[in-house]
Amino acid sequence: MEKIDNINENLFINILRGLLISFAMTIISFLIFGLLLSLTNLSESTITPVIIVITGTSILIGSSITCIKTRKKGLIIGGIIGISYFSILYIFSSILSNNYSININSVIMMIVSFISGMIGGVIGVNLIK
C-alpha cells in the first residue's frame, strides 16, 4: 500500500512540475511577444493566434519533460497536464475578469491544450529509449 501511495505522490509532483514548466514558458513567451508588439509594427490581429500557439507549445514542452521522467502513460499524463493548464487559466481568468465567458476562442484553447498535452506526453515517453 505504501508503494502505491509513493507512486501516486511522485506522479502528482511530476504533473505539478509539468504545469509549472508550461506556465513559466508561457509567461516568458508572452513577455517576448509583448516586446515585439510594442517595438514593431505587428498587427493586433496576430494576438489571438499567437496566444494559442504559445500556449500549445508551452504545454507540449511541459508535458514532454514530465513524461520523460515518468516513462509511462504519456497520453494520459499529457492530457491531464493540458486540461489542468486550461482549467487553472480559466479559473484565474474568471476571477480576474467579471465578464469572462466561454466563447469560440476558449473552446479552441481547450482543444489545443488537451491535444498538445497528449502529443507532448507521447513524445516524452518515446523520446529516449
Characterise the protein shown here:
The protein is an all-alpha fold. The protein has one domain (2-127). It contains 4 helices and no strands. The chain has helices spanning 2-39, 47-70, 74-96, 104-127. The radius of gyration is 16 Å and the shape is globular. The model has no long low-confidence stretch (mean pLDDT 89).
What distance separates the N and C termini?
Answer: 30 Å
Give the total of beta strands. Answer: 0
Can you write the helix and strand succession as a string? HHHH
Secondary-structure-derived class: mainly alpha
Provide the helix percentage. over 70%
Indicate how many domains the architecture comprises.
1
- Please state roughly what percent of the residues sit in beta strands, choosing from under 5%, 5-15%, 15-25%, 25-35%, 35-45% or over 45%: under 5%
Spans with pLDDT under 50 lasting ≥5 residues? none
Taking all Cα atoms into account, the compactness measure Rg is: 16 Å
Largest sheet: none
Mean pLDDT: 89
Global outline: globular
Number of continuous helical runs: 4
What is this structure, in a nutshell?
The protein is an all-alpha fold and 129 residues long. The protein has helices at residues 2-39, 47-70, 74-96, 104-127. The protein has four helices and no strands.
Which properties best describe this structure?
129 residues; mainly alpha; 4 helices; 84% helix; 0% strand
Which secondary structure elements does this structure contain, and how are they paired or packed?
Blueprint: H1 2-39, H2 47-70, H3 74-96, H4 104-127
Helix pairs in contact: 1-2, 1-3, 2-3, 2-4, 3-4
